[in-house]
Amino acid sequence: MRESARRGLELLADDKFSRGNAVSIMRDRQIFFGSMFQALARARLSISIEMYAIWDGYVGTQLVDLLCDRARTGVETRIIIDGIGSRALSRTSLQRLRSSGATVVVHHPPSLRGMQRVFRRTHRKLVIVDADAAFVGGFNFIDQFIGVPWGHEPWFDYVVQFSGPAVARACASFEVSWKAKAPPSLARRTAAGSPRRRGPYDLLLINSPVETGRHTVAKMQEHVLASARKRMWLRNPFLLPARHLVKTFADAVDRGVDIRVIVPGERSPHRLMLHANRHKYAALHAAGVVIYEYQPAMMHAKTAVLDGRFVLIGSANADPRSAKWNEELTLVMDAAPLAREEEQSFEQDLLACVQVHRNRVRGRLIETIAGMAERYL
Question: Would the pTM count as exceeding 0.90?
C-alpha cells in the first residue's frame, strides 16, 4: 500500500519523486527567517519568490532591503505577490523594489472590475535562490511570525529548505506561475538548478495551478487519508473539510487509522475562522478524529505525517478556499527518518495542547453562523 500511496501522489503531481535531495525542516522563526535571509544575501544569479503576504514592517523591510540590494548588483529578481494577501505592502516599498531593478507582479489586485477574481488568490509560499536552493512552507513575510505587536507569541509555522534535483521542479513551478501572471514582455526564463545529488531524500512538489483547472489540494488530502493504514497526524489552522473528506476521515478510522489533528486555540486572531473550525468538531468527532487546540500561540502550520514514512508540508489549508480557489504548493517527503522526527515533534506539541472532548463540543450560535459562511472565509 505504501507504494500505491507514492504512485498516487505522483499521478496528482504529474511528476515523479526526485531522488538525492538534502532537506532541513525548520519550525523556529529565528532559524527559518535567518536561513532565508542569509541565502538571499548570498544570491549571485537569480531570486524567484511567489508569496501570498509580504507586509511593511520589521520582517518585510528586511526582505525588501535584501531584494533591492541584490537586484542593484545585477541579480535577476522576480517576485509574485498576491494583491489581497500583500495589501499591507506599501507603494513606497513596491517602488523601491522596481527602482532597484526587481520585477514585481501583483496577482489580481483588488478592483471593482475584477470582482469575479476576488476568490482566486495565489497562496503559495516559495523562495528560490540561484536556482540552487528553495524554501517552502506556510509562512509569510509578516511581523506576526516574530511576535509583533511586541508581547504577542510568534505564530507557529514550518519552513522546509531543500537542495538537489527537486529545486529544478520548484523552478519549473515558478515559471508556470510567472508565465500565467506576468505580462508577455516579462516572460523570460531562469535556468533550472543543477540536478546533482545533494542528500538522501526523495521529494515531490504538488502544485495546484488553478489557471490550468487542476484543483489538486482536495484530491491530495483525500488520497493521503485513503492511503493511511496506521496513523495520520495533521496540523492545520483552518479545518473546514468538505463532507466527502469527513467521510474519508471516517473510513480511515474504521480501518484502524489513528487520526489526530492540531488546530489553533484561543490565541487565534481569526475569530470567525476559530468558530468555523469549532462548528466542524461534531462531525469530525463522529468520524473518529481526535482534535487538539494549540495553546501557546497562533498555530499556522500545514503539515501531515503518514504511517511513519511520508511528510507533507506546504501552504494548503483544509478549507474550501484551498480546495477550490487558491493556488497552493505542497512538498511531499518520502523519508522515514524525517517522518519519525515529525512524529516526535507532533507528540511534543501535544503537551502544549488541550484535547477537545466530545462533551465539550457545543453548537453555539456564533459557531453555526461561522459554519454557514465557511466557503467564503
Answer: yes
